[in-house]
TrEMBL record:
It comes from Paenibacillus psychroresistens. Residues 135-219 form the RCK C-terminal domain. This is TrkA family potassium uptake protein. GO terms for biological process: potassium ion transport. Transmembrane segments: none annotated.
Length: 219
């Protein structure tokens, strides 16, 4: 079902969130204080306003409180990000997601009641480092601080073997929860007799320690 979002700040992060929400069929209101940014997005966002989001009165007049979910995508100006998030929570917006540029910023956002703090630069850095660490790693998603879900290309030595023969859970402690085939078919919860072939992508869940061990030591 389409939801109503308000994105504040149309920089690289906010712009990309806005584009994707629209592609996913959601209604998006966008606010940026910079005229050039507003102009850039005016052809794809129907309700777009050039305004300073630290002005509570302006946010009220724009009807921001009718949105279910607000995304504060102001990075550089930490003070504006914090003040905007505080006003949005005071206005009673059910869900506020805000981008943090460092740990102090993140801690303040959490203290003032932001529901979800995201760290795009830090998270991309972690993901890229994992990809650099292993030639086979395609994607990496942190589930908690200790557990992750990874997508790994099958290793050449796995070709033609069953999961039972590979015995990954016993050897590395992590579990293959799905296998993506080259034709995009997905085997969810594969069984012991399912075979791995070259070109398959394994979706694996485990503790970070187990996954690092698997990535670095699989033979
Ligand atoms: P990114 O790193 O994602 O590009 P930036 O911090 O560079 O993020 O961009 C944030 C955007 O937020 C900019 O387009 C800027 O004009 C906008 N912005 C900053 N402060 C305010 C504010 N008080 N009200 C509205 N928009 C703002």
């Amino acid at each position: 079902m389409a939801k109503q979002f308000v994105v504040i700040g149309l920089g690289r992060f906010g712009g990309s969130v806005t584009r994707t929400l629209i592609e996913l069929g959601h209604e998006v209101m966008a606010i940026d204080s910079n005229a050039r940014r507003v102009q850039e997005f005016s052809s794809i966002v129907q309700h777009i306003y050039q305004a300073d989001s630290t002005d509570e009165q302006v946010l009220k007049e724009l009807g921001v409180r009718n949105c279910e979910h607000a995304i504060v995508a102001i990075g550089e100006d930490i003070q504006a990000s914090i003040l905007t998030s505080l006003i949005l929570k005071d206005l009673g917006i059910k869900k506020v997601t805000a981008k943090a540029v460092n740990d102090y910023h993140s801690r303040v956002l959490e203290k003032i009641g932001v529901d979800h703090v995201v760290h795009p630069e830090r998270d991309t850095g972690i993901r890229v480092a994992h990809q650099l660490n292993s030639n086979n790693l395609i994607d990496f998603t942190e589930i908690t601080a200790d557990f992750s879900l990874v997508e790994v290309s099958s290793f050449a030595s796995m070709h033609g073997k069953t999961l039972k023969q590979l015995n990954i859970r016993a050897r590395y402690g992590c579990t293959i929860v799905a296998i993506k085939k080259p034709d995009n078919k997905v085997i969810v919860s594969p069984n012991a007799e399912d075979k791995i072939h070259t070109g398959d992508i394994l979706i694996i869940i485990g503790s970070n320690k187990q996954i690092h061990y698997f990535e670095g030591n699989y033979e």
